[in-house]
């Protein structure tokens, strides 16, 4: 049977075949529909215009139809089972529709103890607005935050009515805060904001704050509110834009006088403070100015600004690496590079103190001169021999070899790998620094990297995709149609993997081409490196997805780099080079036409072709020397650790088991009132792979043994330390801190909590004050 639905508020969902009547011109057609086969259809006549409702009374009697009047008040009363709904909406039924209360009634049930009005308070305003009296302490900040973050002009009339009525009730009945709610009720939205702003800026001079808010209505009303009512924390709302500008200008002026004083004003919660601090630290990075320890200690207390704390930590000069003997194993050298030297170099380069690394560069060069030729033959730790791992995967499915030109080891470990891990791709093994083929020039190192042969075994390099495709194809024993290659200037990685192949080769030359040889500050260069690495990490993940979707195969991915790069000290030695052939600043071919005038042979390293796998004899200046003139930007081609150390790793899309944090134990006696108590802090590594403790923060403990501490698999590593207990009187002290560990899957920060028993007071080892 057909129905006539009188639906002023659009409660009925229109179905196919329903006829909507909105004005009188549609009445005749609706009448004809009722007249024709009145009892056979299921379509409805939906009348929206209330002025037309009575027009359908007679047709409904003549052509027997059911007449349904949809009333939102009745419907909400039915759903909530609360009769007091009628009182609230008798004069404004459309509010139910405007506030979508019928939908909310389906989503949010009414509790047995709730009245309809209480339910509305909870749904429209929040739990904190339900109680009539008294307002709990924990609810008050939420009430103020709601007021401060909503625009009064955008509120629905019912919401505003409920809100103002509730504030009035609290102002009359709340014995503890009646005065406060009467003050708030006069202009609740603006007064909640000024109260929140005053709390957020409480650490700033009051006279300065008042001048910042002279343009804000109700700011001066704060003096009408007793101080006891003005202590609310956590009311974090944005400052007015003009005030934010005033704040940053004030902090900038204070910083120029005293950074410590400027930091003392920061609340650690305001966005303008964060922006100011990050920009200030980035400016120090660009200028290469280190951060003083006391400034860092003050800044590190700002838990709300982790980005700024991280930047500040990098502005602290790193600890010097240990001495590197020329007789240690390649494994020891890799640990030294990863855990000690490269972080130290990165810190020095950022702070424009690269010259401080010169003694350690010399130690590494001495090790290379003694061991490099043997490493070429043995292959352990050499980047050019890592391709064999990819060859073993050829039968498992398609392979992508992604070759960066100029990606340094830290760029791979600290920038590229974390981004890949966030996308679900993980390094299969620990990323140890591999040694690039010497000299670290693209035309020497990259061909060896791609095919796994020495330079002397290869034809002269051509810088195009076809040359490298042929090297890779021959190395893997494939035919030409099975290998696809391209450079970043030929196509994108996404386009490269659109066609099926057994082996993909992508040569990304942008880092070397665009950023390495450009006169940028070390920090700016690292930022540009990071931006490109981030973009390409996403492209690598996308390539794996495309191959999986289009070819139904898992893409095996190897990522590597031909060489790193070095920032150069302010003052470097340049060597006069006379040659008929064009040379590089950090290497040169030594043929009959080449002579180096007035140069001590001890300042260069000659690489004989037969001994070092080269076509011709070549030479590199030792340290940071350059042939000819100083290059414009950074450089590569030499044998400094940062030029030689490169990443080489394979990706897996199977998430590894998370690292188990080492157990920390403190051994030694702590005597109350004694200044120097010697301790041994031990780290028990339960994992089947090594990890390094690179940072420790245990308040009160000073570490004597330099970091990082390398802890082998299932072994214990120890650090010597001392603790000053002159101010300790407790029998049991509670040490709470953190340590940062680096392992095969990246870095992690773990917390540590230790309860350590102390002993009776001693002034020194021979003087004990016994307690009775």
Tell me the major beta sheet.
6 strands, mixed
Instruction: Give the strand content.
Output: 15-25%
- Total helical segments: 28
Taking all Cα atoms into account, the compactness measure Rg is: 37 Å
Give the structural class.
Answer: alpha/beta
Number-wise, the strands total 30
Low-confidence stretches: 767-772
Strand order of the biggest β-sheet = 6-19-10-5-9-8
What is the averaged pLDDT score?
88
**N-to-C CA distance:** 99 Å
| Helix fraction bin | 25-40%
Assign an overall shape.
globular
Walk me through what this model shows.
By secondary structure, the protein is α/β, with parallel strands linked by helices. The protein has 28 helices and 30 strands. The protein has a six-stranded mixed sheet, with helices on both faces. A five-stranded mixed sheet has the order 21-28-27-23-25. A hairpin with a 2-residue loop joins strand 27 (732-743) and strand 28 (746-759). Helix 21 (409-422) packs across helix 26. The longest helix is centred in the last third of the chain and has 30 residues, at 522-551. Residues 767-772 have low confidence and may be disordered.
Keywords:
single chain, five-stranded mixed beta sheet, 28 helices, globular
Summarize this entry quickly:
By secondary structure, this protein is α/β, with parallel strands linked by helices. Helix content is 38%, strand content 17%.
């Amino acid at each position: 049977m057909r129905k006539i639905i009188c639906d002023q508020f659009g409660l009925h969902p229109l179905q196919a075949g329903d006829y909507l009547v909105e004005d009188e011109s549609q009445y005749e057609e609706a009448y004809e529909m009722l007249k024709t086969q009145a009892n056979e259809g299921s379509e409805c006549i939906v009348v929206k215009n209330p002025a037309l409702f009575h027009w359908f009374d007679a047709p409904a009697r003549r052509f027997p139809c059911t007449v349904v009047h949809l009333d939102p008040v009745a419907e909400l009363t039915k759903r909530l089972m609360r009769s007091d709904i009628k009182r609230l909406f008798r004069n404004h039924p459309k509010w139910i529709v405007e506030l979508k209360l019928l939908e909310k009634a389906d989503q949010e049930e009414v509790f047995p103890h709730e009245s309809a009005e209480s339910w509305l308070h909870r749904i429209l305003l929040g739990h904190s607005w339900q109680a009539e009296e008294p307002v709990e302490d924990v609810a008050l900040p939420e009430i103020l935050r709601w007021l401060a973050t909503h625009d009064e002009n955008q509120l629905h009339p019912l919401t505003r009515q409920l809100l103002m009525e509730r504030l009035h009730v609290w102002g009359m009945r709340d014995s503890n805060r009646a005065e406060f709610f009467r003050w708030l009720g006069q202009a609740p939205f603006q007064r909640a904001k000024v109260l929140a702003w005053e709390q957020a800026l409480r650490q700033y001079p009051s006279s300065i704050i008042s001048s910042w808010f002279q343009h804000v209505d109700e700011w001066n009303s704060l003096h009408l509110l007793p101080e006891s009512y003005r202590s609310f924390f956590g009311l974090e709302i944005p400052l007015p834009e003009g005030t934010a500008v005033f704040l940053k200008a004030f902090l900038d002026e204070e910083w120029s006088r005293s950074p410590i004083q400027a930091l003392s004003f920061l609340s650690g919660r305001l966005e303008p403070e964060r922006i100011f601090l990050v920009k200030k630290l980035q400016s120090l990075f660009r200028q290469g100015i280190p951060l003083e320890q006391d400034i860092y200690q003050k800044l590190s207390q700002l838990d709300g600004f982790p980005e700024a704390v991280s930047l500040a930590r990098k502005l602290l000069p790193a600890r010097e690496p240990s001495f590197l003997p020329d007789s240690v194993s390649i494994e020891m050298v890799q640990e030294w590079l990863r855990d000690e030297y490269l972080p130290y170099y990165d810190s020095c380069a950022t702070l424009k103190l690269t010259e401080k690394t010169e003694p350690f560069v010399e130690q590494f060069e001495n090790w290379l001169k003694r061991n490099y030729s043997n490493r070429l033959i043995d292959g352990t730790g050499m980047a050019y021999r890592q391709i064999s791992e990819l060859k073993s995967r050829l039968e498992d499915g398609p392979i992508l070899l992604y070759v960066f030109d100029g990606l340094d080891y830290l760029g791979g470990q600290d920038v590229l790998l974390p981004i890949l891990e966030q996308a679900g791709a993980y390094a299969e093994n620990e990323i140890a620094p591999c040694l690039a083929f010497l000299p670290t020039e693209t035309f020497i190192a990259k061909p060896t990297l791609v095919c796994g042969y020495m330079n002397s075994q290869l034809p002269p390099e051509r810088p195009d995709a076809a040359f490298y495709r042929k090297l890779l194809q021959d190395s893997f024993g494939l035919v030409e149609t099975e290998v696809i290659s391209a450079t970043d200037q030929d196509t994108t990685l996404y386009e490269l993997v659109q066609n099926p192949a057994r082996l993909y080769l992508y040569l990304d030359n942008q880092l070397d081409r665009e950023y390495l040889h450009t006169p940028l500050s070390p920090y700016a260069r690292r930022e540009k490196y990071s931006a490109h690495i981030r973009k390409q990490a996403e492209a690598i993940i996308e390539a794996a997805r495309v191959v999986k979707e289009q070819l139904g195969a898992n893409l095996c991915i190897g990522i590597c780099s031909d060489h790193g790069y070095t920032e150069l000290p302010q003052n470097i030695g340049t060597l006069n080079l006379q040659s008929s052939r064009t040379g590089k600043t950090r290497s040169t071919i030594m043929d009959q036409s080449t002579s180096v005038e007035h140069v001590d042979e001890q300042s260069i390293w000659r690489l004989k072709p037969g001994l070092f796998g080269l076509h011709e004899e070549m030479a590199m200046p030792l340290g940071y020397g350059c042939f000819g003139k100083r290059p414009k930007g950074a450089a590569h081609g030499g044998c400094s650790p940062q030029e030689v150390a490169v990443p080489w790793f394979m990706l897996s899309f199977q998430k590894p088991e998370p690292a188990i944090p080492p157990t920390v134990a403190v051994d030694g006696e702590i005597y109350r009132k004694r200044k120097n108590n010697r301790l041994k802090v031990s780290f028990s590594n339960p994992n089947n792979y090594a990890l390094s403790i690179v940072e420790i923060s245990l308040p009160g403990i000073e570490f004597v043994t330099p970091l990082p501490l390398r802890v082998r698999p299932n072994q214990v590593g120890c650090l010597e330390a001392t603790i000053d207990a002159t101010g300790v009187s407790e029998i049991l002290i509670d040490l709470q801190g953190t340590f940062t560990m680096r392992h095969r899957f990246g870095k992690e920060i773990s917390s540590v909590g230790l309860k350590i028993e102390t002993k009776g007071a001693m002034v020194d080892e021979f003087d004990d004050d016994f307690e009775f």
